[in-house]
Specification:
Alpha-Beta Plaits; 2 domains; mainly alpha; 3-stranded mixed β-sheet; disordered N terminus; Alpha-lytic protease prodomain-like
């Protein structure tokens, strides 16, 4: 039942990411054409943001689709880790986007340029609505690192469209050309925090780090105290396929003549119910651990 639930989430993620990708990519072309026709640099820049985001969404969509495959002889744990890899790449592209926005903002602060505010305002409003729709789609998907990274990209475009709207209004009503670079730097701060979170989580998983909600010391203590047959728990290792799929291996020392199967079943039950770990490998020993040598 859990497998069906996970498969449903993966299928939903793939569908929503695909819809968001085509929506963003289509409007990116429209916005680029509008920017060139109106000579509005703010629209051309936002189209550049959307190009990066469309690429990231396409990558996330592909990752969600490929992760739905079962395991095979080459990848015995399946393709779930592709979602983490996609989130990591998306995080890097977010960093590239942040650097690009920062350089462009500094350039415009030094030499502000005039834009045609009315056409820019109309296209920016349309872009804001489209990005809002895409963001709500992704917000309704499952809370995986891959989807969060994609949603952050769309959030960046949402903020970019909002900044373009405010910049166009400021230029039209007040003639203040510095509105665009100032708002862009505010976006950099928001996206920087999001990019850091995505890169931190995905890097931790790719380095086989212990999942954040897993306490190895607590696991050893609980298993040793709650299962009478267990004398000692050692060689405990935990990692994750994705942030939502923790894995664990451990060695359990039991007295001789102990029935092994019930002990293994009880260890797995405790790991699943108390720690949310439904995939574990248990090595039961009745004497010195052979791995200690």
């Amino acid at each position: 039942m859990a497998h069906d639930h996970s498969h449903h989430h993966t299928h939903t993620d793939s569908r929503l990411l695909g819809r968001a990708f085509f929506l963003i990519a289509t409007f990116m072309l429209v916005e680029l054409a509008a920017g060139l026709l109106t000579n509005a640099l703010v629209l051309i820049a936002d189209a550049g943001h959307m190009f990066l985001d469309a690429t990231a969404l396409g990558l996330s969509w592909w990752a969600a689709r490929i992760s739905a495959k079962g395991f095979d002889q080459k990848l015995s744990y399946g393709y779930h880790r592709f979602q983490v890899l996609a989130a990591f790449i998306n995080g890097l592209t977010l960093v590239a986007l942040i650097v690009w926005i920062s350089i462009e903002a500094v350039h415009r602060l030094a030499a502000p340029e005039m834009i045609k505010p009315i056409p820019a305002l109309i296209v920016a409003i349309i872009g804001f609505v489209i990005n809002l729709v895409a963001f709500r789609w992704l917000h309704g998907a499952s809370d995986t690192g891959n989807v969060r990274a994609a949603a952050l990209h769309v959030l960046g475009d949402l903020l970019g469209s909002a900044a373009a709207i405010i910049a166009a209004v400021c230029v039209y009503w007040f003639g203040w050309l510095y509105a665009d670079p100032v708002l862009a730097l505010m976006i950099v701060l928001i996206l920087g925090r999001g990019a850091y979170g995505v890169l931190k989580e995905s890097t931790h998983i790719l380095l086989e780090g212990v999942p954040q909600h897993v306490d190895l010391k607590e696991i050893k203590t609980v298993l040793s105290r709650s299962i009478p047959e267990v004398t000692e728990i050692h060689h405990v290792h935990a990692w994750a396929l994705t942030a939502e799929k923790p894995l664990l291996t451990l060695h359990a020392l039991v007295p001789e003549q102990t029935e092994v199967q019930p002990v293994v079943a009880e260890i797995k039950r405790v790991l699943n119910q108390q720690f949310g770990i439904d995939h574990s490998t248990i090595q039961v020993e009745t004497g010195p651990c052979p791995d200690d040598h």
